[in-house]
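Cross-check.
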Amino acid sequence: MSSYKEPSDVLKRLLLPPKNPSLSLSANYQWLVFTQEPPLPSIELLAKPEEKLAGIRFDPELLTPSRLDYATTLVLQHMKTGEKQEVQLPENSEGIRYIRFNPVKSSFVFASKVKNEARLELHQCQLSGDNNANDESKQIWTMTKIQLQNHKMNFIQGCAYQFSTDGSKLFIKVVPSNTSSTPPKEPVSTGPAIQLVEKGARKAPGRTYQDLLKNGYDEAKLRYYCTTEVLCIDMTTAKGEEEPTLVPQSKGGHLIQSLNSSPCGRYLLAQLTTKFSYSVPISRFGKDIVLWDLNNNQELKVASIPVNDEIPLSFDACSRHPRGYRFHPCGTGGEDDTTTTIMFVKATDGGDPANDPVDGERDALYCQTIDTDAFTLHEPTKFVGLEWRYSDLDFSESGMAIVEEYRWKDRMERKWILNADGTKLRMLWERSWEDRYNSPGEPLTRRGAKGQYFIVQPTPTSIYLSGAGASSVGDRPFLDLLDFGSEEVKTTRLWRCTAPVEGELDASKEVNGVLPTDRKDIYESLVCVMPDNDSIMISRESKTTPRNYYLSKLGDGGDEANIQVTNFEHPQPDLLG
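Predicted model, tokenized:
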């Protein structure tokens, strides 16, 4: 049988160099996970058929996004000791993907592609040994298969599984057990494409999107491939043998766009697709926002959103309906969960910048508290109003928040510091986001209590800022400490990428305001600030050295200022001469 000829080993090394391993950090920042993927996708992978429905492209057999590669190695390395442990993949595995760490335990799960089968299996890795040992580096990582009782996971609209915020449960989207084994057959004639206009809809120009639904047959296929139920596994005792239980509210299947776990782990906030459209992708389909109580198996409808197909073309426009539903990350009042809170955004100007703002505001964020006893929602209360369009909101563990608003027409952005009750404490800055040379960076976040990501606050009146550090000599990433406790905001530069050999520098933008004397043609970027707030992880690479990772002390760390964590070899050593 004829086949493609293989090039020489030298050509393979030159034209097919291995990728740098992908890196993940454990929730407690003690372990690094490295996975190695193929340098290029195979011809077989590129030739696989794909479905194109409602703006998404996916593999109809695996129920994953199209043309995914899988890692063929899995290595864990302890941050402090450097000790490595290679975990052998399952015998029937072609490769793995979708590594997700438990937010509170030293364990993670991943999906393994079964050889010669259109199926992904779920596995868990966890530390075994003396549970009382403080030194995790002395413990061994062991792998077990999580039994899903022949249920097939569905990754079309994102990773099929996620942990609850307290790490006690694992939720998995699977194909309903009553789903037919064959997809709907295309009819001889689909008939006319009929769409109904909602009552109260308004005229609006339409944008152009790819791969939209065209007829009823496409609708039937979308329902077939994207309908899922949710299984729940108790991770406090899970070793792979426990049988998963069905979340009752998902029985029969829904088109689940997203799931969001509450800080207390008791509730799930689900967005369920309810109404289709032939003019916008699935992200703008009509949806119900529902609250699932996992303790009492109850469901509460939070909101019903129609199809979002009438947003004006202006980039300052948005939906006129409530959007951005999420849990308040600090919104739990203890074991009774009486203050678990849902947040959302609503345009006060109808989402159209041509309209006048209401009381000087175009967007407002609202909070709705859950009455646990009656399982009802209190009336929404305004958290904060914004003169421009809402962009983002992050919280610190103390309850302080930073909200960002933008105005597209002149590319302006503002950041405000908010008190825990939403009142504006002070404006951090108002600037053009196109001015990259003077960009102050973005607030640094880190995984905190119960797996939530919070703004890092080394002191009650300070935060970290990290940015790309664009300059006349190229990008030089940085880390700053911003103190907002005094009348004037003060910024201190803590770290910056090593300066290149050539080019003029600005001392005011260097650490301690002093021009560096040790200049090298290398590129460094910030990976994270470690939990001690005294050391950082950075990556470093150059024209002749591959990207590797280092632990660096902020300030004068002496001999420990730079500790090399990884030692990846050059992918193309033949080019070094």
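The longest helix spans residues 216-226. The CA atoms of residues 113 and 203 lie 47 Å apart. Passed to J.P. for a second look.
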